[in-house]
Amino acid sequence: MSETKKPPAAPAASAKGSVPVSRERQRQGRRKTLRTLLLTGGVLGAGLSGYLPLVYARTSRLRPPGALDEKAFLQSCIKCGQCVQVCPVDAIKLADLVDGFGVGTPYIDARAQACDFSCDAVQCVLACPTGSLTYHKPAFLPVREGAALPQKPTLIAKMNDPEPTLNLTERMGVARLARPESCLAMRGEGFKGQARGAGFEGRMRYAAVDRWNPIRVADHPYDLPLCDLCMRECPIAGAISLEKFTGADGKVRARPVVHENCVGCGVCEMICPTEAASITIVPREVWQS
Predict the structure, then answer these.
(1) β-pair type (215-216, 173-177)
(2) What's the mean pLDDT in 97-125?
(3) Are the CB atoms for 116 and 214 separated by under 8 Å?
(4) pLDDT tens-digit profile of 252-281?
(5) What is the DSSP string of 55-94?
(6) How large a percentage of the chain has pLDDT more than 70?
(7) Which residue numbers delimit the 4Fe-4S ferredoxin-type domain (predicted)?
(8) Domain ranges within the chain, ordered by starting residue
(9) First-to-last CA distance in the chain?
(10) pTM of the entire structure?
């Protein structure tokens, strides 16, 4: 007699009584986990995309010359970019998405490219169609205490012109010696070479080189026994001076001093050869004696 074949035995249960998971079930579980992770990341990303602009919106931006106070500026600027088009040194940029409520509005990154008034007449003010940049505020917008300039600023490059002043009545900000410990003048050191290195693309008008056309800062090297670049290249007469003193080591040093004539253009920050800049601009800062 032939033996009767028995049906194959069922898979043995594990010690806890569970049945081993098939490979397909394992793949489905991995896909589900991956979808959950991606969904979680998307939700977090969407949340941050709304939160980050609010954070960056609180960051003070250096606005172009003649800008209204921030709230009025944001309300009146139509983001047309006319000021960007007329700037001879491309100092004015338009804010991107991370700038929150200020997206599309013009600002200046002084360290990358300052406003050196190469246009003489402040063309951005003349180009603005809404008065967001203006020489004179309307009567219903008061001038903040300390924001007004003591007199029309005198442009050094125009000293020999019949009218050497700018029509600005309010400052953009105020320069501050933010890092005196790194300032070459404070340390009694000179400077030789290109102020920001050979690769720096920033431009500036050197009246002794070309009265009308700005050139690359990298194309104008220096050789100074005592660094005075912030004072030397400041475009506004009487805005920065150096007060020399003798240190405890007998070394002659100098302290950059910012005066009320400062308009906050940012040239001193751009030209400062230390990294980070020893002197910086505080946007929308008012004058405090």
Answers:
(1) unpaired
(2) 90
(3) yes
(4) 999 999 999 999 999 999 999 999 999 999
(5) HHHTS--BPPTTBPPHHHHHHH-----HHHHH-TT--EEE
(6) 84
(7) 64-97, 104-138, 254-282
(8) 70-283
(9) 118
(10) 0.80
